[in-house]
Design a protein that fits this description.
2% of the residues lie in helices and 53% in strands. It is mainly β. The strands form three sheets. Strands 1, 2, 4, 5, 7, 9, 12, 15 and 18 form a nine-stranded parallel sheet that branches. A six-stranded parallel sheet has the order 3-6-8-11-14-17, with no helix packed on it. A three-stranded parallel sheet has the order 10-13-16, with no helix packed on it. It holds the Pfam family Pectate_lyase_4.
Length: 165
């Protein structure tokens, strides 16, 4: 999927169930953060579920959204393996940038600005390389929570600027 805009994304809007070799590129995804606060219908901006693998999310502009992305839909199932997020801008978002359950991810050269709850949530044995990202006004930029098992990450040359970290 390339060069599309999606406003007020419907439930599970851009959800990849079990496909492989997906590329989401140069697109704009947004809602109204005040409108979607606490509303499950604004869940799932970019979700990789079940056995989705080899997914790249690049050069996108995502803003004013509650739960941005998801890699792996439960702690008991296999998760999105081998996902890459690069050169995206996430601004005025609540959380899930992404949560990574199991699998491998490379998250590099992204701009995270005004993240209200949590950023990259690595858990259930996931392994993530987080490199050269810019976090500004981001609460919990990188964490491991909400699951019984933590994940593992390597932070390389990330920049955390002022704000709610």
């Amino acid at each position: 999927m390339q060069a599309f805009a999606c406003r007020e994304i419907p439930p599970e809007g851009n959800s990849s169930g079990e496909p492989s070799n997906i590329w989401i590129d140069h697109s704009t995804l947004f809602a109204s953060l005040s409108k979607c606060a606490g509303d499950a219908s604004f869940d799932g901006g970019i979700d990789m579920k079940k056995d989705a693998h080899h997914v790249t999310v690049s050069y996108n502009d995502v803003h004013d959204h509650q739960k941005v992305a998801l890699n792996g839909y439960s702690d008991t199932k296999n998760a999105a393996a081998r996902t890459t997020y690069h050169h995206n801008r996430f601004e005025s978002v609540e959380s899930r940038l992404p949560p990574q359950r199991r699998g491998l991810s490379y998250i590099y050269n992204n701009d995270f600005n005004t993240v209200l709850t949590s950023g990259i949530n690595v858990r259930m044995g996931a392994v993530v390389l987080i490199e050269a990202n810019d976090f500004e006004n981001a609460k919990n930029p990188v964490i491991a929570r909400d699951s019984s098992e933590i994940g593992y990450w390597d932070l390389i040359n990330n920049y955390i600027r002022s704000g709610i970290a």
